[in-house]
Amino acid sequence: MKEEKISGYSGESFTVKNIKGESLFGTGFIYKIIYDDEEKKQIIRKTLIGLNKYYMEYIKRAAPQSFRRAIKPISLYFRSQLGKWQACFKDHHFSNEEEVRFVVHVPDEYPPGTPDEEKIEIKHRVQDGYLVPYVELFIPKKQFDFLGITVSPLAEQELAESTTRSFLRSVGYPCEDEEGKSLIRRSNIPLRF
Questions:
Q1: What local confidence, expressed as pLDDT, does residue 4 receive?
Q2: Which DSSP string do the residues of 12-77 spell out, in sequence order?
Q3: Which of 10, 22, 31, 133 gives 20 to 30 Å between its CA and that of 87?
Q4: pTM tops 0.70, yes or no
């Protein structure tokens, strides 16, 4: 099934590499987050129309008793789309963040014989009392030219900004643009408890 390109939606893929820069078995995508509800509806509508078209074409060509076979690829495709939508749809109240997400698809199972060093290692950290899975990735600086970082609303806003600045400096990224303006911004979203 072919995915139609829609502005800001189709993720640009990248090769997943570990922190040593070695290629791993997995796929990564960069998604520009979509905040506009009408754009989300358009994406979902186009997908459903495409799936219906695929189904109708399939049952025209297939024997009457085999049309149920069309359901499995449609179901798999729709589930993959739900995963993409979950990764790139966000409430319009957060639109000032202009977020971009790096999403790594880790296989449930690796093909037999895949060397351990090519498998993506899933690590875990504790955040707000929950175990959160993450992967360490190598992203060359030339591929990670950002316009700024928006720090989410926190009770300790100054601390969040200073630790973000410290982190950027420790990994060799700039904290200001050419004009000396800070690349670290505060979110306009009010803090909620």
A1: 38
A2: EEEEEE-TTS-EEEEEEEEEE-B--HHHHHHHHHHHHHHHHHHHHHHHHHS-GGGGGGGHHHHHHH
A3: 22
A4: no
